[in-house]
Amino acid sequence: MTQAQRQQLERELAELEGPRREEMVQAIKVARSFGDLSENFEYHAAKNEQGLLERRITIMRARLQNSVTVDEPTRASEDTVSVGSKVQIENEQGEKIDLEISSVGGVSPDSPLGEALLGGKVGDTVKVKAPGGDWQAHIVAVGR
């Protein structure tokens, strides 16, 4: 991931670990005050929501810990697909698809599509070896 993508992920993690986690604690405290916990829907819903939040935090921490940050100056040229590139492709049916090569909210560089696109240039046609079957994509545009 690029440094900007890392910073975005760190900001989102800080939001989840700070204000969002505090909101969950307060929601559980309020729901607990409603009485009998065995029949308290609000309490069970708040606890479920807390579990989902904690799972998301765990996933984001692992993603940050296991990620590799790509230095902007060492990235490939502007017309070559690399981590952080915004790419427009055209599939075999003629549909144009806009995507970003990123392990944060985009197409992972480790995915079949990401692997096929990395290093490609505008005008190239790449073969995507996907689990559902191979297909081809034409690179229409590359940007940052």
List its salient traits.
144 residues; alpha+beta; 4-stranded antiparallel sheet; 19% strand; elongated
Task: Itemize the secondary structure elements and their pairings.
Elements: H1 3-32, H2 41-66, E1 86-90, E2 96-100, H3 112-117, E3 125-130, E4 133-143
Computed over alpha carbons, the radius of gyration is 21 Å
Apparent shape: elongated
Strand tally is: 4
Mean pLDDT: 88
Looking at this structure, what is the CATH superfamily of the largest domain?
A: Transcription elongation factor, GreA/GreB, C-terminal domain
Residue runs with pLDDT of under 50 for 5 or more positions:
none
Spatial strand sequence of the major β-sheet: 2-1-4-3
CATH class of the largest domain: Alpha Beta
**Strand coverage percent:** 15-25%
Proportion of helical residues: 40-55%
| Structural class based on helices, strands and sheet pairing | alpha+beta
End-to-end Cα distance: 13 Å
Return the CATH architecture of the largest domain. Roll
What's the structural domain tally? 2
Oligomer: single chain
H/E order of the elements? Answer: HHEEHEE
Question: With helices defined by DSSP (H or I, 4 residues minimum), what is the helix count?
Answer: 3
Major sheet, described briefly?
Answer: 4 strands, antiparallel
Fold-level CATH name of the largest domain: Chitinase A, domain 3
